Amino acid sequence: MTPSCNSAAATPVLSLTRMAQIEAIYPLERVAVVQAGLALETLQTAAAEHGLEPGIDLAARGTATIGGMVSTNAGGIMAHRYGVMRHRVLGLEAVLPDGTIYSDMTRVVKNTAGYDLKHLFIGAEGTLGIVTRAVIKLEPVPAVTATVMLGLPSVTAALEAISLALRCEAGHLRAAEGLWQHYIQLTATAQGWSEPSFPLDAPICLILMLGGSDQAALHDSIEQIFAAVLDRHPSVSGIIAASQRQEADLWRLREDTDQLYRAHTAAPSYDVSVPLSEIEGYVAQVMQGLAEIDGGIAPYVFGHLADGNLHIVLNRAGPLEPALSRAVERVLYAPLPAMGGSFSAEHGVGAKRVSALLATVDPGKLHLMRKIKAALDPATLMNPGKVLPEPKASEDHP
Ligand SMILES: Cc1cc2nc3c(=O)[nH]c(=O)nc-3n(C[C@H](O)[C@H](O)[C@H](O)COP(=O)(O)OP(=O)(O)OC[C@H]3O[C@@H](n4cnc5c(N)ncnc54)[C@H](O)[C@@H]3O)c2cc1C
User: Exposed, middle or buried by CB within 10 Å (0-12, 13-18, 19+), for 276?
Assistant: First the structure.
């Protein structure tokens, strides 16, 4: 983890790599008490020994720490079911800039004993304090999973398929990831993946994963979903993973985002949340708007379709020159507030998106954010320049 607490430095000055213990797992409570430097994957492995999981998963599982995930309010592929990090944290310990230790390591779901202040630190990106320990809620791991990839004519068709999967009686929907054509063509080509019965020409591919206890029943459910989708859209292609290896291969098509950055060094990337019924129109509007800026821009779009979180990466080496960057952000971000979306879904604001925050934030919220920052970190010691711009002299310590 790399929170900085030195206003002069952009380099990390604090490391929690030695605070990486699992202090306890309570299988009957379905709760883990962990230190902030712990990697997600280490918690996943330890919890799996009890048939449990943290209810959150992301491709960076090997390196993402619990402290970093708490601080960015990470989401990932199961957020539609188990929520984002904010919903996984029962208790929290943090060290404030003045050295106060905030400790509320409750292990219970219900706790109305005063303000629930842990939420100040969740998603604060290290600007209000250093998260040191957390109590994480766990969920049962399904005994078996089944995965299908569908090539679909539209986002609406993909959302219909997700609705069918949510109604599955043999199990539950674990993940529903959308891969627009340009994205899957890139990862499939880079990985040498091809399947004669699955041409990569559909506007959008959907990877659905179900979890349950009976492999045969789950497989039947996946087949029923495929058949129901085919009924409505006869041109749909589909692949049902017949083995764990095939399942992993399908998921690699989604998770191998490194390919984007190999093709386009430091490609500019965006991470937006869009209400489900607005996605189709939003993506069309964005494609058109970007093409109007520059006919050569053809973004890669993919993401967590079940919760409306889209990752959009430009087919350009980054960084963009400032005027172009502003024009691209206008196209991507301007429609979002009116439709009830967000310019930052799960990657936070950091230093890169401060101007986007200022352009879209409600003035009342900004006022409150500044008051909280000034109350907890009046000297702006913690991750200066992130989330909020440095206060102007006139705004300092009212
Ligand atoms: C391949 C890939 C896939 C990803 N997929 C997803 C995804 O699906 N969903 C998602 O939400 N994110 C995703 N991410 C982003 C990832 O979740 C974040 O990188 C992760 O949550 C941050 O954890 P970290 O330990 O790497 O934190 P860092 O990147 O080191 O830090 C992130 C921020 O939190 C602050 N911070 C870190 N630790 C602490 C602490 N203990 N106390 C206070 N502040 C702290 C840092 O200063 C920084 O501002 C992905 C990243 C990659 C590389």
Answer: middle
Give the Å distance between the CA of 16 and the centre of ligand 1. 13
pLDDT given for residue 394 in this prediction: 47
Rounded CA separation 201/268 (Å): 25
- pTM of the model as a whole: 0.91
Minimum CA distance residue for ligand 1 atom 2 = 60
What pLDDT does 230 receive?
96
Q: Which residue lies with its CA nearest to atom 26 of ligand 1?
A: 64
Task: Give the span between the Cα atoms of 181 and 201, in whole angstroms.
Answer: 7
316-330: burial string, b at 16+ Cβ within 10 Å, e else: beeebeeebbebbbe
pLDDT, mean over the chain:
94
192 C-alpha to center of ligand 1: Å?
Answer: 30
The pLDDT tens digits for 203-253 are 999 999 999 999 999 999 999 999 999 999 999 999 999 999 999 999 999
Q: Are 152 and 178 in contact (CB under 8 A)?
A: no
Task: With beta carbons less than 8 A apart as the criterion, state whether 12 and 383 touch.
Answer: no
pLDDT category of residue 391 using cuts at 50, 70 and 90:
low
